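**Sequence with structure:**
===
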Amino acid sequence: MENIKVALIHDWLTGQRGGEKVLEVLAEVFPKAPIYTLFHFPGSQTEAVEKRNIQTSFLQRMPFLKKHYRWYLPFYPMAAELFDLQRYDLVISSSHCVAKGIIPHPDALHVAYIHSPVRYAWSQYHSYFSRERLSFFPNLLIPPLIHYLRMWDVTSSARVDHFIANSRNVARRVEKYYRRQADVIHPPVDTESYYLPDEDPDKKYDLIVSALVPYKMIDLAISAYNRIGWPLKIVGQGPEFKKLHKLAGQNVEFIGALGLSDLRRLYQGARTLILPGEEDFGITALEAQACGTPVVAYGRGGACETVLEGETGVFFSELKTSSLLAALDKFQGLKFNNMAIQTHARSFSREIFKEKITAAIRRKWQTFKEGK
């Protein structure tokens, strides 16, 4: 594969979430491949990604982009389609929105690593756009816009030769919405940077590490912790911040974004990490477990693939305050082995992902060549 021309596609580069960690490994595997993305906020990525040849779309020049990039959602499909990828033999997209909808050369192989079909168009539409959340004019404009986005999303899925999903949970969505099969390779977890503390800390708080967006169900966790009064620290940023801050009692602390060392320290010092919503996969659950910290999670979606009931955490079965409180009560009565928790997390390491994704893409390329 050394002599073929490869391009990497990612939706946008604005932070260092799970999708960007996948992109970073793909960039290592294909060190000469340019990265195409709708827009890029310089300084938001690791040095390894920042120094690459990053090609952005016309959206990069739009006003107020950094603060209000979601305003430009209607233009995302067109921006992805306008990338000129005709000179590449292999195109690899890392997609949770529109990256998989690029138009490759007809003789090229397109492999899509998919983090989720567009969440706010499919499984999380009502979390983002319920009638109660929207004022009069958005209620008129958003439904037809999302209807168009769904049609484009399904149509553009035919441009993908092979799907690789980040979890069995997402593979089921790919089959449901696109009627396509997807292989499953779990995304990389930086188990080298997250590890057990040198000394056992005095664990006095619980922790959430999450984007502050509706489907993460942070309000559910705040409701539960307001009721019991336990200390809860919330790391993350997002459009729900003001709403969530108003809901929170004095026992809930919002910390914002953190660097790796500070985040590791919080993981190590927490009694438990709380995952109150349905995750596509849930890398934070494994980062916490790599630090020996157990997880209390909603028992659907990706958490079912990353948390072992009774061994590395506890599940709750309903998106209700009472259900989360019952799980926290159960958690109190259990003892966990932090070394066993760390060992489980290491089975999702960065190196294991790199080996699996490299082997999978090589197989797809070989099959593609033989079929030409």
